[in-house]
Design brief:
- The longest helix has about 35 residues.
- It contains six helices and no strands.
- Helices cover about 85% and strands about 0% of the residues.
- It is elongated, with a radius of gyration of 16 Å.
- Helix 1 runs antiparallel to helix 2.
Amino acid sequence: MNSKFIKFFICLIIPQIAAILGSLATTPNIQGWYSGINKPSFNPPNWIFGPVWTILFVLMGISLYLIWAEKTKINKTSAYLFFYLQLVFNVVWSVLFFGLHNPLYAFVEIIFLWIFILLNIIFFYKINKLAGWLLLPYILWVSFAAFLNYNIWILN
């Protein structure tokens, strides 16, 4: 099997592992706890979250592959560090918000998630511009999610 294909497949799988871990806290709480809390009028319908997150995790994987495949003298350690930190913080947000039913802690945590995504974008962009740009929809969605999280915390 082609090593480029294997690298690409690994890079697509890594964010999907984070998605699965996050969904373990999220999915069981959508119909129960989440459906019963107060949400702002601009809260998207539940069905939109799955497709959006699927696209974002695929873009993360493609972005990671571009960094891994890039032949450069630039040290990639910080880029990888921020990629994996934002993935961990992504999962932790799901645990705090959905698993522990704590919008306040989740809101504080999503600020750190946003910072790590920004640092991830900056370090990826220095290595491969497209890899950085591919993460732009992610930070925009997390910006919206942070605003939504804040409003849910205030309403509850």
